[in-house]
Design brief:
With about 375 residues, the protein is α+β, with helices and mostly antiparallel strands. Helix content is about 20%, strand content about 20%. A seven-stranded mixed beta sheet has the order 3-4-5-15-7-17-6. A three-stranded antiparallel beta sheet has the order 14-8-16. One of its GO terms (cellular component) is cytoplasm.
Length: about 375
C-alpha cells in the first residue's frame, strides 16, 4: 500500500470542522423535504480497513424462500432471464429477520431486485442504517459525502451547482463507467441498497449487468484459462480526482483479487474485473494483461443479453449484489437551475474477501427461476 500526501486543508480545518458540499440547496433554511440527507463531510483520517471473516446471511435462509415469496399480496416478476426481478406489494421496511435473510439469497440469485412503491426513503436514517447492517458491516466511503451523524449512509447528489457531470467523466464522450463498488477494498461489497429521493423528470437512470451470465457465456476453455489468475484493483485514481483530494479519510489502497470469484451462497462463478478499478493481471507482462482485461471489459460491457436499465421513480428501491453485478449511472439529464436534482442514497454492507473455489458446484435446479415462482401472488 502506498500513501498519498495528505492535503493541507486537513491541517487547517482539523477533525472537528465540517464541510458542506456545494449545492444549490440552502442547508439551513431550505424547505427541501430531504435536506437532512444532503452530503456532509468531516475532515480527518481513519485507519485502514482490516480484513474480517464474513458469514453471509443468505446461507441461513430457507432455500425455498417461502417466507418472502409467499408474503400476502407480493408479486415477483422476472425482468430478463439473466438478471433482475421486479417486486410489488411488499414493503422492505416491514421485512422480519428471516425475510431479510431470504432477500439476500434472492438478490444473490437474481443479481438485482427492483422494489416498487416503497416507504423506505421516509423511514429515517436510523432504520435505514439498521436495515442495511443486517447484511454485513456497513462501509464508510473513503471520500464520499455522508449523512450528518450517519457516516455509513452515502448520498449521491447532483444539481446545477454541484455538477451533473463528475470530474471523472467530463473529458469522456460518454458518462458510462461500469464498475463494482469499491472493488479495491480487501473485503468486497455485498447486498447493497440504493434508492432516490428526487430525480430528473427524464434521464439519470442506472444500468446493471450480470457478471455471472457474462462468465457463463464464455467457452469452457477460456473460463479454464482465467481460473487461478489474479488482478490488482486500485483506489488511487479515484482519490486523485480534483474534487476528491480534499476530503478522503483513508489512504487509498491497491488489493489483489481473483479474476473469477465464487459466490459463497449460490456457489456460482462470476467475472470480477471492471474498467474503473482493475489495473493489471498479476504475473503477466503489461501487453499480455491488457489483452485479456480489454477483452473481458468489452465482453462484460457489450453483452446486452445480461443487461438491464432501471428508470427511477418515487418509491423505487433497488437491492443488488455487488459480488455478481456491475452498474453505471447515466448523467444524461438536462440540468435546469434550481429545478433539477438527482439525489440518491446508497447503503453498502461489506461481505467476504473475494475468493475462487475450483470445486464449487452451483445447484442449477435450486435457482429462483427454476422453481416457478415468477409472477406469483
Amino acid at each position: 500500500m502506498t500513501s498519498l500526501e495528505a492535503p493541507n486543508k486537513f491541517a487547517e480545518l482539523g477533525p472537528e470542522k465540517e464541510i458542506r458540499f456545494e449545492t444549490s440547496v440552502d442547508y439551513e433554511s431550505s424547505e427541501y423535504k430531504y435536506a437532512s440527507y444532503l452530503p456532509h463531510y468531516t475532515p480527518g483520517r481513519q485507519p485502514p480497513l482490516e480484513e474480517f471473516a464474513h458469514q453471509d446471511v443468505g446461507l441461513r435462509a430457507d432455500p425455498e424462500k417461502r417466507s418472502l415469496l409467499t408474503s400476502p399480496g407480493a408479486i415477483f416478476e422476472e425482468i430478463t432471464p439473466a438478471i433482475g426481478t421486479e417486486v410489488r406489494g411488499l414493503q422492505l421496511s416491514a421485512l422480519n429477520s428471516q425475510q431479510r435473510d431470504e432477500l439476500a439469497l434472492l438478490a444473490a440469485e437474481r443479481g438485482v431486485l427492483v422494489f416498487k412503491d416503497q416507504d423506505f426513503p421516509d423511514i429515517g436514517p436510523e432504520r435505514q442504517r439498521e436495515f442495511g447492517s443486517h447484511f454485513g458491516p456497513l462501509h464508510i466511503h473513503q471520500h464520499g459525502g455522508q449523512i450528518k451523524g450517519y457516516p455509513e449512509l452515502l448520498p449521491v447528489y447532483r444539481d446545477f451547482k454541484s455538477g451533473a457531470v463528475d470530474n471523472e467523466i467530463k473529458n469522456n464522450v460518454s458518462s458510462i463507467k461500469w464498475h463494482t463498488d469499491m472493488s479495491y477494498e480487501i473485503n468486497g461489497m455485498g447486498t447493497t441498497i440504493f434508492f432516490p429521493f428526487e430525480t430528473p423528470k427524464s434521464g439519470g437512470d442506472t444500468l446493471y449487468l450480470s457478471t455471472t451470465a457474462a462468465y457463463n457465456s464464455l467457452s469452457d476453455g477460456y473460463r479454464q484459462r482465467l481460473h487461478g489468475l489474479y488482478a490488482t484493483h486500485s483506489g488511487f485514481d479515484q482519490a486523485k480526482v480534483a474534487d476528491h483530494k480534499e476530503r478522503y479519510i483513508r489512504e487509498p489502497i491497491e488489493t489483489v483479487h481473483p479474476i473469477v470469484r465464487t459466490h459463497p451462497v449460490t456457489k456460482e462463478n462470476s467475472l470480477y474485473v471492471n474498467r474503473l478499478y482493475t489495473r493489471r493481471i498479476q504475473g503477466y507482462k503489461e501487453e499480455e494483461s491488457a489483452n485479456i482485461l480489454n477483452f473481458l471489459y468489452n465482453h462484460i460491457e457489450h453483452g446486452q443479453d445480461w443487461h438491464i436499465r432501471i428508470h427511477w421513480t418515487p418509491g423505487t428501491v433497488v437491492v443488488y449484489d455487488n459480488r455478481n453485478t456491475q452498474h453505471s449511472a447515466l448523467r444524461d439529464f438536462n440540468v435546469k437551475e434550481h429545478e433539477t436534482k438527482r439525489h440518491m442514497l446508497r447503503i453498502t454492507p461489506q461481505a467476504e474477501r473475494p475468493y475462487f473455489d475450483p470445486n464449487a458446484e452451483p445447484d442449477i435446479n435450486a435457482s429462483y427461476a427454476a422453481k416457478g415462482h415468477l409472477g406469483t401472488e
